[in-house]
Write a structure and sequence with these properties.
It is found in: Bacterial flagellum; Secreted. This protein is an alpha+beta fold. It is built from seven helices and 14 strands. Among the domains are: 167 residues, f41 fragment of flagellin, N-terminal domain (Up-down Bundle); 90 residues, no CATH class. 52% of the residues lie in helices and 16% in strands. The strands form five sheets. The chain has a five-stranded antiparallel β-sheet. A three-stranded antiparallel β-sheet has the order 7-12-11. A two-stranded antiparallel ribbon has the order 1-2.
């Protein structure tokens, strides 16, 4: 067997070698210009696929960051709104104490009522606060329209009870602003668990000033009636009108029965009664309305003045409870804001790790690339020199 070597073959091999070296140098030039080791996917298919996956994870982290910013904005607005609402309730509490002054004239009470009405309007405006993007803070998931409307003096809630959750880091969710039904409605009266009230037909001068559980844990949730049999004696009856306790009354001293503690001041009349049992719920707007109605009560008689004082004491308890409810809502929102800060740290740490991995996959080692470029340049120059010399040679010269 013999091998045949022709001038054309040598020529083709030289051209092919120079083109290969030129292509390699062009690729190195692209790498040096972009600073990227992977210019096209074919440079390293495995690394390229891995890099695309890391890019996708980084994009997801970026979107989670946007989610966190939106949630942080809404929770921050909720905090500011509830702070203002609490200031309004503090003013309501001041006005209630002021209105409880027996020296206050009817005209003075009318002025207080007008301010209370103004506070109610301000509270309604706060309850309909938007987040700056046209969405209402306290509407729950139905935040496209104002959650609270006023008709014939009555405030109605039109939102829902859904509190959305927002993912702010992989597997980490925070709660959005609370629905208005939980913030401004469904507020427990009394001390939040038990409440008490004077009977409408009381004729004495006794005023209920406090109600609570006695700490023994023996209250079973039933309702009881404290009924005075004289100015200094009383019976306690349950819902079936069965006497479950008796005692002697002294103004300002606690009366303890069936796990409950009641404090009454003043002189009762025989037949006067006070009921105690589970606290009901009332919205903050109705609490203000009830206070306004209390200030409009007829106080021309001693019984009327006592009834008003009992109603004002109940309002003081209810306003304090509403204020406490707003504070609880602010605390819950603060906890969510803390979670957002923690999630930001987690996202940042994850992003740094991913970007470091991407850098190892994609970023060019300049020293190595420049060295390779110089080597390929020398090889190309050598190939060009050989090709130039080869052009002046012929196999026919060897057989002359």
């Amino acid at each position: 067997m013999s091998n045949r070597i022709s001038s054309n073959m040598m020529y083709d091999q030289s051209v092919s070698l120079m083109l290969s070296k030129q292509s390699k140098m062009n690729h190195l030039e692209q790498q040096l210009a972009t600073g990227k080791k992977i210019v096209t996917a074919k440079d390293d298919p495995v690394a390229s696929g891995t890099a695309v996956g890391l890019d996708r994870v980084l994009a997801e982290l970026e979107q989670l960051g946007k989610n966190a910013n939106t949630a942080q904005n809404r929770l921050g607005l909720q905090e500011n709104t509830l702070s203002q609402a609490n200031e309004l309730l503090a003013r309501v509490s001041e006005l209630t104490v002021q209105a409880n002054n027996a020296a206050l004239s009817a005209e003075d009470r009318k002025t207080v009522s007008a301010e209370l009405q103004s506070i109610k309007d301000q509270m309604l405006a706060l309850a309909n606060t938007t987040d700056g993007n046209g969405r209402y803070l306290f509407g729950g998931a139905a935040d496209g329209a104002a959650p609270f409307t006023l008709a014939n003096g009555t405030v109605t809630y039109n939102g829902d009870q859904i509190q959305r959750q927002v993912e702010v880091a992989p597997g980490t969710f925070v709660k959005d602003a609370q629905p208005g039904s939980e913030v401004f409605l469904r507020i427990r009266t009394g001390d939040g668990t038990v409440d008490a009230a004077a009977a409408a037909g009381n004729s004495g001068k006794a005023v209920l000033t406090d109600i609570s559980r006695d700490g023994s844990g023996s209250w079973n949730g039933d309702s009881y009636t404290l009924r005075f049999t004289g100015t200094d004696t009383y019976d306690v009856v349950d819902a079936s009108n069965t006497v479950v306790g008796t005692g002697t009354y002294k103004t300002g001293e606690d009366i303890v029965f069936q796990g409950l503690r009641v404090r009454i001041e003043g002189t009762p009349a025989a037949g006067d009664a006070f009921t105690a049992g589970q606290a009901s719920t009332r919205d903050v707007f109705s609490t203000i309305d009830q206070l306004v109605q209390t200030l409009q009560m007829d106080t021309s008689t001693e019984a009327g003045r006592t009834a008003q004082q009992n109603a004002l004491q109940a309002s003081i308890r209810d306003v304090a409870r509403a204020s406490g409810s707003l504070i609880d809502a602010r605390a819950a929102g603060g906890a969510q804001l803390k979670s957002i800060d923690d999630a930001a740290s987690l996202r940042e740490a994850s992003s740094i790790t991913l970007e470091s991995s991407l850098s190892q996959l994609r970023d060019l080692n300049y020293a190595e690339a420049i060295g390779q470029y110089q080597l390929e340049g020398a090889a190309l120059q050598a190939a060009q020199t050989i090709f130039t010399q080869m052009q002046s040679m012929s196999l026919f010269n060897m057989i002359r």
